[in-house]
Structures are given as structure tokens and as C-alpha cells.
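Data card: per-record layout.
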Amino acid sequence: MPYEYVTSFNPKKLQKMQDPEATQAVLQEIETLAGQTEPVKGDQINQWLGLLAQSEIMAQKWKGGGTLIEVYPSGKKNEDRIMMSVSDGVVDIQDVGVSRH
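The structure for this 101-residue chain is written out next.
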């Protein structure tokens, strides 16, 4: 059974992104990958980091640890970010926004 894809962010936040079209395209790609991918029994974070890299989507494990991945929909030079968690066969897009640092 493939990953379940859910979102828990306010879609209006997409309009405030520096490049909302690129962010929407990456979200669509993540949703497509989720529907095509079986969860591994081990480290699902590393599985997703690999999937995103294969799709040429820049991402890294969030420095705070846990099950979060920080995605750079327009590359690291742009401040747009997608925060997603991966756990127990569920991909949850938790937030989108512009980096504050």
C-alpha cells in the first residue's frame, strides 16, 4: 500500500510564497511520489530524501530532528520552504512559507 498524502497547512499561504508556482509544482510532485511509493520498514526519512533527490527536489532533514524534512521548492537561494513530515506511511505537508532567517 502506498504512502498516504495529507496536508495540514492553510492553502492561502501559497499565495505569499516568492514563487508560488514552483511551490505548487513541488507539492504536486510530492503527492505523485507518495501515491507511487511503498513505505519502507526502516528509515522513511532517508527513503524520502532519496526520492526527492531523484526528482531533483532540494531537501534536507530538518535540523530539529524528528520526522521533519525541509524542502526548498525553488532551491536554497530562494527563501520559500515546505515543511513535511514522514512517519508510519503518511506524508504530511505541515507548512509552507518564506524562511525567516
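Known properties of this structure: The chain is about 30% helix and 30% strand. Strands lie at 4-7, 58-61, 68-72, 80-87, 90-98.

See the next section for split statistics.
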